[in-house]
Amino acid sequence: xxxxxxxICGTTLDDLEAPMRIELNHALCQGHARCAALxxxxxxxxxxxxxxxxxxxxxxxxxxxxxxxxxxCPEKVISVRG
Length: 82
Ligand code: F3S
Known about the structure:
The chain has helices spanning 2-9, 13-17, 34-38, 63-72; strands spanning 20-24, 56-58, 78-81. With 82 residues, it is of the alpha+beta class. It has a single domain (18-81), classed as Alpha-Beta Plaits, CATH 3.30.70.
């Protein structure tokens, strides 16, 4: 039963255990700086207030802050993927 479920959705147990990643679309950033205000350990801004952090893996502990930053960015620059 489980094997059939996993094969239907295309997800494997390895996928579920893979580290989460922050993905950024820098072209959309308008310098609102909410990401860095909320999670300065995850997001760095340039001198003009635009995010310069590159896409990277994050720890499980950082996931809630990353998800919240993604939610509050009005330009939808940030996405968090597993
Ligand atoms: Fe840019 Fe959104 Fe942060 S617009 S500076 S990624 S809150």
